[in-house]
Amino acid sequence: MAALQGKTAVVTGASSGIGKATARLLADEGSHVFIAGRSIERLKEVARSIEDGGGRATVGAFDLHDYDALQTFVAEAAQQTGRLDIIVNAAGVHHPGTIADGKLADWRAMFETNVIAVLVGSQAAIRIMRETGGTGHVVTISSYAGQGEGHHVYGATKAAVNSICKVLRAELENEPIRAVTIMPGAVATNFGRHHSPEFVSGMLKSVGISTAFQAGDVLADDVLEELRARASAIFASPMDIARAVLYAVTQPHDVSVSEILVGPRKSFPTAA
């Protein structure tokens, strides 16, 4: 029997990268996954791939800055299935740049997605887990960049997330709900969509990949897989992180898997 047979999971940021890989893996293990993100077309593609493999997926397309929509989506997952076992806060945004030259809109976007949405989604999930009386896991994808090495404002948001998760573990210590922090190193995802085309193209060319890229573009899965294959020592696969999530949520419930640092052999702590 699949490890998560009959369980319900909500995954944010599921249209690409770590969230997409996690949703697929949790579905493969029997969970009905409720996948959230901004791109309805990419979410539908993920859902189709899950359903083609015999899994179950329900799509919710909205901006995570719409916190009412996020709370409603989490509640609907439990209403439709009668339970909520897992939430994976996988959505994240990284705007590079110095504090001296940064933009307020970029800072706000990072804190609203990387921090506030984690608080809102986690709170909504915990309330439902308490109401339904089951065991549960609140899993948050943070980053090596949150380890306190000063990786720009992005690192500050991930440091805040790490602190929030520690507080949450203490709050839930006497409840059947576990809070887990997964901290990836460099992962072959669309991490570069807010970087300059010169930076992304140069990075790809350094490992022998030539592809057109403009700021905001989403790199195709085959390009990302080629990047990981050619530079596996410095880029992990999104599935590597998904497997860490699966490990955490399938341990005996009296075992607290609090933090997992996972990345390539030569980890770059500034990327996630």
What would you say this structure looks like, in words?
The protein is an alpha/beta fold and 272 residues long. The protein folds into 2 domains: 8-187 and 236-262, Rossmann fold (3-Layer(aba) Sandwich); 189-232, no CATH class. It is built from 8 helices and 7 strands; from the N terminus they run E-H-E-H-E-H-E-H-E-H-E-H-H-H-E. A 7-stranded parallel beta sheet has the order 3-2-1-4-5-6-7, sandwiched between helices. Helix 4 runs parallel beside helix 5 (152-171). The protein is globular.
Helix/strand layout:
Elements (H helix, E strand, L loop, with lengths): L7 E4 L5 H12 L3 E6 L2 H13 L3 E6 L5 H15 L4 E4 L14 H29 L3 E6 L10 H20 L5 E8 L12 H9 L15 H10 L7 H12 L9 E4 L10
Parallel strand pairs: 1-2, 1-4, 2-3, 4-5, 5-6, 6-7
Helix pairs in contact: 1-8, 3-4, 4-5
List keywords for this structure.
single chain, alpha/beta, Rossmann fold, 8 helices, disordered C terminus
- Under CATH at level 1, the class of the largest domain stands as Alpha Beta
> Pairing-aware structural class of the strands and helices?
alpha/beta
Mean pLDDT: 88
Low-confidence stretches: 268-272
- The CATH H-level superfamily of the largest domain is NAD(P)-binding Rossmann-like Domain
Q: How many structural domains?
A: 2
**What is the number of helical segments per DSSP (H or I, 4+ residues)?**
8
- The percentage of residues in β strands lies in 5-15%
**Count of distinct strands:** 7
Summarize the biggest pleated sheet: 7 strands, parallel
Helix content: 40-55%
The radius of gyration computed from the alpha-carbon positions, rounded to a whole number of angstroms, is 18 Å
